Amino acid sequence: MGGKDHQPIQAPEEEWIQAVRKKLLDWYDRNQRDLPWRESKDPYRVWVSEIMLQQTRVDTVIPYYERFMSLFPTPGALAAAKEDDVIKAWEGLGYYSRARNLHTAVKEVVETYDGVVPDDPATVSRLKGVGPYTTGAILSIAYNRPIPAVDGNVFRVLSRWFALWDDVTRTSARRKFEELDRLLIPQDRPGDFNQALMELGALICTPVSPACADCPVQEECQAYRDGIQAELPVKTKSKPPVPVRMTFGWIRKGPQVLLQRRPSEGLLGRMWGLPTVETLPEELVPGGTLRDHWAGHGLKLELGPVVGELDHVFSHRRWLITLVQGLCLAEENLPADCAWVEEKELEHYALPNVYRKAVRMALDPPQSSHGFQQGRLF
DNA sequence: AACCCGTGGTA
DNA sequence: TTACCAAGGGT
């Protein structure tokens, strides 16, 4: 179309830029939140916080960050840790490949860069799990380098300030917003400026009903002048998660419960969980056998009653889960990806929340579950 | 470019 | 209940 959504950035007047910088930084100095990762500018601490904050709320991250930093206070400590311990510290945060990539990248920093996070954007951006945003965040906050860090907040704030109609979900938008950020970012306080943009987006320039009355740069906001705050930023709607029927097994052998490691690729890859099959619950009637579903695993299982149902939504998939009890009748050889675990030992395994919820349900079954048969057979 | 990868809060 | 979304990155 060639509408104004693809117009090149028109550089603002230098005087205007100076004024906006001062207003935003003054506001940030007075209103920034007291967050644990702001206690120092240690590049490692900044790095860990930025990885945890990817697609994750500040309030959710805080307790994880505190725990993670006391477990792994330095790059050396994290590099020396076992992967299972790192994943355990990440348990419940989601997007578990973030933890594995961070672990891999920190080991590389320890081995290749003597434990010092490189002060160079090209080198940092090559580390696993560090993309364009995180590169800019680490370099600007920890090393005072004037490099853009465009996240969802910055997309929102800048699209409103300058009334930009670019679809921010498209790759081309990132380059444009980074160029704009580059024009605005001050040489003396680049890290504070980037954080101020994000803080403004988090506290004032919110996605829904922004607090324009309290905004330090209201006078400079084109969207506010035009009354179009609610229309920006433009984002392509994401597809709803695809529903999938799943069955979890709560399989007992005496005091033990069966756990299974998930396949290395795909959703919850390599995480521990209850034995899981993608199947219709009708095939798993009480008294039936699960042997067909775990054929070749050397286990002979008999199904018990349905414990209950769970509805768990991931970013692109939705599991409609039936939790069934089972009994191990015979075991020839335990599959390599399976383990018998005492109930009290379950807490030592890193289980994604969907499995934690199922374990909770198995240990404390609902009294009524949509008319399903209930009670513990075994 | 399109799709994949978790979870919890909120309207 | 659905829909959106929160300091994104990998493939």
Automatic annotation (TrEMBL):
It catalyses: Hydrolyzes free adenine bases from 7,8-dihydro-8-oxoguanine:adenine mismatched double-stranded DNA, leaving an apurinic site. Keywords: 4Fe-4S, DNA damage, DNA repair, Glycosidase, Hydrolase, Iron, Iron-sulfur, Metal-binding. The keyword Secreted does not apply. Its cofactor is [4Fe-4S] cluster. InterPro entries: A/G_AdeGlyc_MutY, DNA_glycosylase, Endonuclease3_FeS-loop_motif, Endouclease-III_FeS-bd_BS, HhH-GPD_domain, HhH_base_excis_C, MIG/MutY, MutY_C. The keyword Iron-sulfur applies. Binds 1 [4Fe-4S] cluster. SUPFAM superfamilies: DNA-glycosylase, Nudix. GO terms for molecular function: purine-specific mismatch base pair DNA N-glycosylase activity. Its EC number is 3.2.2.31. Pfam families: HhH-GPD, NUDIX_4. Residues 52-203 form the HhH-GPD domain. Adenine glycosylase active on G-A mispairs. Belongs to the Nth/MutY family. This is Adenine DNA glycosylase. The lineage of its organism: Bacteria, Bacillati, Bacillota, Bacilli, Bacillales.
